[in-house]
């Protein structure tokens, strides 16, 4: 019994002593940003509120635009101003271009062999080149446009069928399901060249497995792995390794089965398609890409492109239901440019500046990843006059920056007209608006995301009038957020669609 008590005391005392010495060393050696006082071992874990970006914006009012937070024993530096964002993403970009990987992302990326979770270095530069020159080139985006337009018009047809049923007239629909279907089908067709959902809404066995893997990945991503917070007890949490290993095996099994199908098809036809899986197979030898990197890249596209697109459109539609003035102004533009005898295409975007501004304004107020993905310092660096030691994790609070009253007029108001008053870039060149990041880690698929979000919004607004459910006033639409790395609406949007075009314009345009 005495031995067990001594062992328990050692398990608690030794890590606590190590933490205190490490923290003391950092504070004596470095001029760290101020922040809330951390507790031993757990740091500020119990101080942080569930919706982190709002919590950090509140703390910035107390500690200033840059402050330190300890999440368990790891030093995190939070920046909340456009000036500091520029220091992180431009002036010190190379020193802060590494990624912090937790146990889940370490497993998903095979230790950073993909793009999203790779540290900055020769591997990242090579894979980034593949994305910029090959996967997300303007030529390939244009070649894949028919797929995007097919899926968006399929959504319109589905909503029209539902709303035209006499039993459903004047009843609201749950937007998230329709938007999620577009994002799901679009990303599976872009990556794997497969539409797992048929025209009746049924899903084949492979599709069910794919959806299960995505769902399980989200659960694992949100799980707290005790061995990460208590690394000296990693042996005690061996079952956590099993969870990650099983998920990896399941994901790889499906991906390799689909790759084999494409290999067989190519051997029969001798040709290749524009889908990412075929493109990566063609590029594998040219760029010396490992199988782990190809699988990692495919799943990067899926995880980065699926949720963020549907989230962005749901937030935008919520703002449009809440602000009927903006909705009607967008519909006036669509009617003037497109008319009522045809449907919108992506080629019309350049003639629809107000629609594009709506997409921008939604991304400003509701960035899908409000804290970006975490950067990590690969050397000691200065930010805002403070020291950021090597290994520190750096977060840019793009949500707080986009609502900063010192750089935005009426920042809480949904007002797309602001982008007519001043041209603000959305793809990483203006540090006031950073939904896709900036610098070396800017999202390579930003243009693809913008095209799909704008297309979905344009079709929804051109085809339908949108109002709140019966008994709900526009100003009562709930715009609070759910906690998480990507930010869903806490209350899924319900809205009533009323068709506004001739019936023959509600048919899917299949590829």
From TrEMBL:
UniProt keyword annotations, A-Z: Heme, Iron, Membrane, Metal-binding, Monooxygenase, Oxidoreductase, Transmembrane, Transmembrane helix
Subcellular location: Membrane
Amino-acid positions noted as binding heme in the UniProt annotation, renumbered to this chain: 443
GO cellular component: membrane
InterPro entries: Cyt_P450, Cyt_P450_CS, Cyt_P450_E_grp-I, Cyt_P450_sf
GO MF, one annotated term: heme binding
Annotated Gene3D superfamilies: Cytochrome P450 (1.10.630.10)
Cofactors that this protein relies on: heme
Pfam families according to UniProt: p450
CDD domains assigned: CYP98
Membrane topology: Single-pass membrane protein
Homology family: Belongs to the cytochrome P450 family.
PANTHER family xrefs: CYTOCHROME P450 98A9
Name of the molecule in the record: Cytochrome P450
Organism: Cynara cardunculus var. scolymus (Globe artichoke)
């Amino acid at each position: 019994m005495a031995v067990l008590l001594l062992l328990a005391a050692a398990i608690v005392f030794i890590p606590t002593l190590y933490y205190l010495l490490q923290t003391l060393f950092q504070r004596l050696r470095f001029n760290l940003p101020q922040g809330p006082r951390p507790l031993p071992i757990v740091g500020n874990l119990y101080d942080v509120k569930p919706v982190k970006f709002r919590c950090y914006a509140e703390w910035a009012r107390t500690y200033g635009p840059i402050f330190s937070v300890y999440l368990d024993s790891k030093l995190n530096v939070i920046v909340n101003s456009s000036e500091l964002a520029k220091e992180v993403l431009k002036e010190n970009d190379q020193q802060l271009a590494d990624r912090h990987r937790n146990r889940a992302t370490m497993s998903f990326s095979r230790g950073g062999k993909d793009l999203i979770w790779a540290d900055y270095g020769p591997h990242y530069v090579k894979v980034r080149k593949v994305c910029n020159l090959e996967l997300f080139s303007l030529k390939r985006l244009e070649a894949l446009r028919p797929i995007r337009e097919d899926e968006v018009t399929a959504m319109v047809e589905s909503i029209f069928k539902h709303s035209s049923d006499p039993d459903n007239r004047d009843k609201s629909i749950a937007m998230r399901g329709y938007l999620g279907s577009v994002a799901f089908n679009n990303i599976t067709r872009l990556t794997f060249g497969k539409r797992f959902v048929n025209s009746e809404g049924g899903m084949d066995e492979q599709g069910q497995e794919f959806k299960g893997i995505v769902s399980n990945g989200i659960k694992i991503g949100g799980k707290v792995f005790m061995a990460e917070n208590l690394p000296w007890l990693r042996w005690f949490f061996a079952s956590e390794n099993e969870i990650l290993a099983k998920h990896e095996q399941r994901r790889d099994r499906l991906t390799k089965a689909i790759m084999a199908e494409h290999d067989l098809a190519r051997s029969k036809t001798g040709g290749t398609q524009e889908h990412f899986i075929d493109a990566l197979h063609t590029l594998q030898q040219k760029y010396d890409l490992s199988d782990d990197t190809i699988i990692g890249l495919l799943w990067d596209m899926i995880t980065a492109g699926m949720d963020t697109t549907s989230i962005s459109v749901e937030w935008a539609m919520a703002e449009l239901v809440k602000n009927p003035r903006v909705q009607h102004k967008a519909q006036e533009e669509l009617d003037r440019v497109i008319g009522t005898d045809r449907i919108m295409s992506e080629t019309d975007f350049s003639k629809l500046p107000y629609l594009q501004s709506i997409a921008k304004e939604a991304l400003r107020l509701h960035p899908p990843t409000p804290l970006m993905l975490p950067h990590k310092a690969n050397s000691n660096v200065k930010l805002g006059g403070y020291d950021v030691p090597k290994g520190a994790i750096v977060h840019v609070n793009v949500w707080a920056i986009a609502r900063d009253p010192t750089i935005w007029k009426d920042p809480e108001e949904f007002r797309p007209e602001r982008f007519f008053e001043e041209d603000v870039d959305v793809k990483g060149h203006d540090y006031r608006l950073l939904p896709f990041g900036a610098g070396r880690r800017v999202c390579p698929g930003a243009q693809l995301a913008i095209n799909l979000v704008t297309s979905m919004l344009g079709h929804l607004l051109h085809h339908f009038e949108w109002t709140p459910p019966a008994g709900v006033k526009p100003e009562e639409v709930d715009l609070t957020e759910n906690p998480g790395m990507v930010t869903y609406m806490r209350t899924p949007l319900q809205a009533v669609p009323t068709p506004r075009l001739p019936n023959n314009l509600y048919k899917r345009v299949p590829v």
